[in-house]
Amino acid sequence: MIKLRINGMPVMAEENSTILQAARKLDIKIPTLCHMELECFNLEHRIGSCRVCVVEVSGRRNLAPACCTPVEENMEVRTHTLRAINARRTMLDLLLSNHPKDCLTCEKNLDCELQALAQEMGLHRIIYKGEQSKHKIDLANESIVRDMNKCIMCRRCETACNTIQTVGILSGIKRGFNSTVSTASEKPLVETKCTFCGQCVAACPVGALTEMNRTYDVWRALNDETKHVIVQTAPAVRVALGEEFGLEPGSISTGKMVTALRMLGFDKVFDTDFAADLTIMEETTEFIQRLKENKNLPILTSCCPGWVKFFEHQFPDLLHIPSTAKSPQQMFGAMAKTYYAKKIGVEAKEITVVSVMPCLAKKYEAARSEFTRDGVRDVDIVISTRELANMLKEAGIQFNDLRNSAFDNPMGESTGAGVIFGATGGVLEAVLRTAADWVSGKEIKDIDFDDVRGISGIKEATVNVAGKEIKVAIASGLGNARTLLEKIRKGESTYHAIEIMACPGGCLNGGGQPYIHGDTDILEKRRQALYEEDREKTIRKSHENPYIQKIYREYLGEPGSHLAHELLHTHYTKRKNE
To answer: Does residue 507 carry a catalytic annotation?
Structure first.
């Protein structure tokens, strides 16, 4: 431990910790902009590029950036001297001078850390006027908008992409006035190995990286009398949406969300959890078959499109081991445009399927060519949790005052197994619940597989499934996925099943969720809320869902049938890894 004084107050800080961390122990606030803590990876982004956090240190000629200056024994620090305050204001003035002035129409308006800091520091006019750097806006993909005219070179997106996700497509380029963060040769994201996971968007403090907004497309669909417009909502949305309306993190707002969606004008409000149960039927069937044959193991879950694209680029030699089952979003779309369309007597092209997802990669996934039949997409429009919240605010819906209501059927009934898809480890636990019953031929009562739970990056466990020891692993965050897969590629580790989610903590921390910038406490509250909803469900195993049983009885036949493969399974593509 290191002893130092900040503003005359003594404090003990860990060796190698920073002035910023020590100040927080004394509840002293030092403004930051480029700094970001990523608690779920025990990682800090601390490059000190913005210099907004400078402080005076006795004996030093220059001001020190608090976010990346290590504490020293008997250090004397002053955080709000006139010199420090003037330097901070100057740095912020310089950032504002090269920043677009379209705050009112910016996607990050009121969510922008630069805007908030300027307000906090009382900066109400532009001091330094002159030329601004100009960069082409990247609008060439379905998921992410890159507007580097708004980039402040904090480089948090680089840490998200290169260090955490290990995708490695972003870096600082050029020098001086024209410097920016971009891809190799400044290619648009769609021409790179970007996974569209959205973690760069979640990390960005300004409007340089935002989601491709599709809310107006939803409004148009809802007001098109020739269309039957239905909506599906992912499990992670219901435990995060309330945060946009001031509710405590982890608040379960399922019933309010359903009511709100009906008020927007959707013809039917369905649940992606239903399709999650359907996914388990197909994926578990595939898993058991591979176990019996001892072939193509470990099976890898395939629900996450960001992870799938990462795999296609980075591990094309292992394309034979992921499950061929589509994600719940795409299974829902396929069933909506076939089974449900037949039930209500309309053509597939007359149905518009809208998805509300915590994930920006879902926008990319819905546009993949293999998820189109006869020119009709399975899923037409994907919006994020944030986009839904903005629609509700635009419609003047008082979310917190709404009564609870239930999803519509037949595709609104789900089990606890479907709910936990939103948390890392949830998909694998749902598979194990059904596999235990099917392999043993009896109903297993103990269905809580606690060893696969938690938000840590990599979890390994050996679980007993009907007397058979099954070795499993869970990875959240693509960097952790790489670690696991490299071991498999080299033959250093063997497993029977692996679940991978692109985002740290799983879908709870998706790129389209309310911004939390790595706050592990919020992620943990969201996770606990999902398992609370799971415990409260009457049915907690996917194969016991009566509407799932009915869809097989009436339409699909049995899990793994020819029709099930045609509608509910997919293939993968080897992609360049440049």
So the answer is: yes
